[in-house]
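Structure ticket #2291
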Amino acid sequence: MAQLILILLVAGLAWLGYRKFIADAEKLSRKTEELRRNRETGATGTLVKDPETGEYRVKKPED
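Resolution: structure written out below.
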């Protein structure tokens, strides 16, 4: 019985690690694609509208 619990625990941790890896890879892919598009168009960033003031500003990397 202890072996079964250990196997399930290891499988669960492996699954969580895999999900984290995939999420990080997708985030990196999106960031890389955005940088590539900006480089192709010569843009220095993406403008986003501030809902409170109605003004546009350059999108921060963490947004």
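Closing remark: The first strand starts at residue 47 and ends at 49.
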